[in-house]
């Protein structure tokens, strides 16, 4: 199977399907859906036909690629029937493209991804049954080029002090001193993490409320409208709460390798612990943090490295989504976050309302940490220097 990954002139499967629903008491049932694009241009392949086969290659169902309303992408298909977990095959038929039988396993995987097909060559003989094997999100991460020192970078990330007027207002309004408690900074960070998670529901399809992007506005809008907000809103709230308590923090956008075609990303926080002398991962959307096998808290760069090198990772047992679904290490780290740990970006100036409407407040630029050779351009500062990106906050 490893040798087949070099045959990139045929079919590349980046990932497959997201389980949609569960029925019955004993067996999970899933819909099969996804997107089909041209591998070179990333253009959707409208009017392709997708055929679903069971493990014995018996035809089960088919669907036309023409949907435009799934996950904000075009070129989608959805097979209306639902099927039990197990091994299946797909064949995607489109004039001028390869159509091998593609094996996959229908199970709880990660966010919806894309299947890329390449055109047939006009000349030469080709074995039509060869294709590049499916790459899991961890395998994609393992193939990432290394980071490299960037001698031109000398800018410093900035963190508003707790004496800042807006942070003072937030601290007093929500009595954050009491919420954070009097323990060490790790316990205070966790207390604030859980407080944001418990008080502002996560809703990935809902952006920000009208008004400033502050803890107070997002919190009260959530209560007033009985709604949740997306991961970016929650991460901005936690960052403000941490800063108000004198804990340097950033909200961190985590993006996939296919950042320009995959609309899914995730935003978490990193908080600086003086006790540990390092950044630590705190995700208010899932009340999640990550440790190594010895219980040492990790930051996203360390989690990325450990996924790449098959080193142990431990997710806190109470990580959950809206107190409804507990998260597992396999789903949250190895599937979802592994995809979204390819590119990191953060605001250089961390304060209340970092992206909002107060014209008299200085705004920070964004800085992105990318692997060597990346085509990423969606930041004011782009670097391959992880040491610079994870720099120690200045006191």
Concise account of the structure shown:
The protein is α+β, with helices and mostly antiparallel strands and 395 residues long.
Structure, described:
The protein has nine helices and 20 strands. The longest helix is centred in the middle third of the chain and has 15 residues, at 185-199. The strands form six sheets. Strands 12-11-10-17-19-20 form a six-stranded mixed beta sheet. The relative contact order is 0.13. With 395 residues, it is α+β, with helices and mostly antiparallel strands.
User: What fraction strand?
Assistant: 15-25%
Structural class: alpha+beta
Side-by-side strand order of the widest sheet? 12-11-10-17-19-20
Number of strands: 20
Radius of gyration: 23 Å
From N to C, what is the helix and strand string? EEEEEEEEHEHHHHHEEEEHEEEHEEEEH
Task: Give the % helix.
Answer: 10-25%
Notable characteristics:
395 residues, alpha+beta, 6-stranded mixed beta sheet, 4-stranded mixed beta sheet, 21% helix, globular, disordered N terminus
Secondary structure topology:
Blueprint: E1 11-13, E2 29-38, E3 49-53, E4 59-64, E5 76-84, E6 86-93, E7 102-106, E8 114-117, H1 137-142, E9 158-159, H2 165-173, H3 176-180, H4 185-199, H5 215-225, H6 231-244, E10 249-255, E11 266-273, E12 278-282, E13 290-291, H7 300-308, E14 314-315, E15 320-321, E16 325-326, H8 329-339, E17 343-347, E18 349-350, E19 366-369, E20 381-383, H9 386-389
Parallel strand pairs: 2-8, 9-18, 19-20
Antiparallel strand pairs: 1-8, 2-5, 3-4, 3-6, 6-7, 10-11, 10-17, 11-12, 13-14, 15-16, 17-19
